[in-house]
Amino acid sequence: MNRAMHDTVGATGKVKQAIMVWDMPVRVFHWLLVICFIGAWLSSESERWAMIHYAFGYTACLLTLIRLVWGVIGTRYARFSQFLKSPKAVIRHFMAMLRGHPHHDVGHNPAGGLVMFALMLLILLIGLTGYLSVKEFLGNFVSEAHEAVASLVLGLVIIHIIAAIGMSVIERQNLVRSMVNGKKQGMPEQGIRYPQYLIGSFIFLGALYFFYLIMSGSLPSLTQ
Ligand code: HEM
Ligand code: HEM
Fold this sequence. Notes:
The protein is mostly helical and about 220 residues long. The protein has one domain (about 20-220): Transmembrane di-heme cytochromes, Chain C (Fumarate Reductase Cytochrome B subunit), CATH 1.20.950.20. It is built from 10 helices and 2 strands; from the N terminus they run H-E-H-H-H-H-H-H-H-E-H-H. Strands 1-2 form a two-stranded antiparallel ribbon. Helix 3 (about 50-75) packs across helix 6 and helix 6 runs antiparallel to helix 7. The radius of gyration is 19 Å and the shape is globular. It starts with a helix and ends with a helix. One protoporphyrin IX containing FE binds near residues 53 and 130.
């Protein structure tokens, strides 16, 4: 079977169609994280915006903690077991890509999955160093570390955005839109059955409430 046919006809002979891949909690996590990350950067320069900075930063961490739990109990493609692969598998994936064979499965590819997981851990590290800066623990060193990790994540995010656009061109489907509506091209049996709208809405509202709590100074142990 040639490649063009492989793109539209699966092993079972069925034609690919739009199927649900990213559940609501993953999408809410992603786009709120984007807002928090940008917000934290924009508010990082001035003392006047300190509470807004803490609110964006801690909300990014809360979302990430929830995502880590969801990576264990979530739907099929949200699970770490689905996309955290051995170093061998990551290298095999890279070699296949270099030979011009893009990843045909839905969900994160092994290389992308690893970067996603690293990004999540680094966001928690930004939060931890931010917390220690507020507590003036180890003085300048921790503040410098906070800024350094934030810059590292910014670098990874820029690569991540370029990769998302590049992979969209290679795979001939809009992956950014997939992160919005949850849908990708695939076989009907590959789709998830329940997009978990209710849990996604709870995470959304919980994150907004938590943002408000931090910004209004209701959790002084985190901000003073
Ligand atoms: C406007 C900018 C962004 C775009 C267009 C974008 C796009 C995407 C896309 C398309 C995916 C799915 C990748 C796949 O199909 O395998 C994804 C996943 C992800 N992105 Fe972004 N992204 C953006 C910004 C960010 C930022 C700022 C962060 C972190 C600070 C981030 C962290 C992540 C993480 C952690 C995942 C994995 C999602 C999960 O498994 O829950 N992204 N992004
Ligand atoms: C995504 C999350 C975050 C990002 C991207 C981020 C980014 C930054 C950056 C770039 C600076 C340096 C500003 C400058 O001096 O030019 C900064 C400073 C600071 N951030 Fe964050 N931050 C985040 C989360 C947090 C959190 C959760 C806290 C916890 C309270 C925090 C507390 C601070 C403090 C206290 C400073 C001032 C450090 C100092 O100069 O002494 N940040 N942040």
